[in-house]
TrEMBL record:
Signal peptide span: none
GO molecular function per UniProt: oxidoreductase activity
Name of protein: BFD-like [2Fe-2S] binding domain-containing protein
Keyword Oxidoreductase attached: yes
Keywords: Oxidoreductase
Organism name: Virgibacillus chiguensis
Domain BFD-like [2Fe-2S]-binding: 6-58
Pfam families with a match to the protein in the record: Fer2_BFD (PF04324)
Listed Gene3D superfamilies: BFD-like [2Fe-2S]-binding domain (1.10.10.1100)
């Protein structure tokens, strides 16, 4: 992979930009994310996170098993806005959350 290779397709971040972020002190995927927006696209880093971790490993020597995975935020997978907007679904989610708060789940 040369330095012009796009690593994060969603945000069009290339390897050179990732390396620059690492040279500025980034040591984790989330550090790179904050400096470049890499991982903030529609796939929420499902495509680019492992590539970025490999580049961090390559540049810093930090072993892959020591590199934390990216922090995931809900929703953990793509869902349609219609699903979120559906009142029946919203009511189910609200009741599950209420049950978990009451210790039911
Ligand atoms: S490829 Fe990086 S956020 Fe989708």
């Amino acid at each position: 992979m040369d330095n012009s290779t796009i690593v994060c397709r969603c945000e069009e971040i290339n390897k050179d930009e990732i390396i620059t972020a690492i040279q500025l002190g980034a040591e984790t995927f989330d550090d790179v994310k904050r400096l470049t927006r890499c991982g903030m696209g529609p796939c929420q880093s499902k495509i680019c996170s492992n590539l970025v971790r490999e580049i961090i490993h390559e540049q810093t020597g930090i072993s892959l098993c020591q590199l934390k995975p990216s922090r995931m935020r809900a929703p953990l997978r793509l869902i349609r806005m219609k699903t979120l907007a559906d009142h029946r679904t919203a009511n189910k989610v609200a009741s599950v959350l209420q049950d978990s708060e009451e210790g039911g789940v």
